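SUBJECT: A protein chain and its fold
Encoding: whole-number codes for local backbone shapes
RECORD BEGINS BELOW THIS LINE
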Amino acid sequence: MNQLIEDIRGSLQRLDAAAVLDILIIAVVIYALLMVLRGTTAMTLLRGGLAIIFVLFLLGRILELSVVNFLVRNSLPGFVLGVIVIFQPEIRRALERAGRTSVRTWLTHEDHDVALEAVATAAGELARRRHGAIIVIERGTGLEDYIENGVRVDAQIDARLLESIFFPNSPLHDRAVIIRNQRIVAASCTLPVATGAAAARLGMRHRAAVGLSEVTDALVVVVSEETGTVSIAADGRLIPLRDESRVRTTLEALLSRRNGLRPAAAQVT
């Protein structure tokens, strides 16, 4: 224990401006990693791994266990490789988010209004009829991988067309519709499903919506077939709406916030 205290004291005495900057950079990287892993099963795995390493480190130093100390000192390369393998989906998500640019916008203002009006109108009608639906609005991250596994539509966006796609027993009603600019690009698209503990309580449509919003910056409108309620998935979280009339204002608020604009009369519920 005395040796551990002496090591800490010696490290503190060697601190200078460069060392402080070095520590701050590493702290920012760790904080960003924790924000990416927040609310996922990977966070539980990370906590467990760090707890084991910390316990082994303390035991090795306090009890002067030479073999344990040797393993802890030389385990860093293996630990880094293990992190890359285990947390590959989360690392990919972080790199995708880092590569997005705020300069690129999803639509021009006029196209923005047309598309949101069509989506809001269709979501309201589908909710009243209790027709389940998933409507994806593409933004900075390209969704071509998901478009390719669906059926290409490439049609001008229209609320009536969206309603007909999600009519029960329609050939394309299952899975998701993807919208790019003012066009319905594809229908019947398979989306990644969220696997976190919180997502386990959701239905398949809502899990798919949250799953896509975790790995891309897309906004996903979901209509529940069982309850007729409308929700919006963004940034890995699900926003339930009190009624379908709030779809447009909520989408506008989310889009404005991401583009660095100030939303006008928009409220997220």
Notes: Residues 101-110, 260-269 have pLDDT under 50 and may be disordered. The longest helix spans residues 41-63. Residues 109-258 form a domain with the YojJ-like (1 fold (CATH 3.40.1700.10). The chain has eleven helices and seven strands.
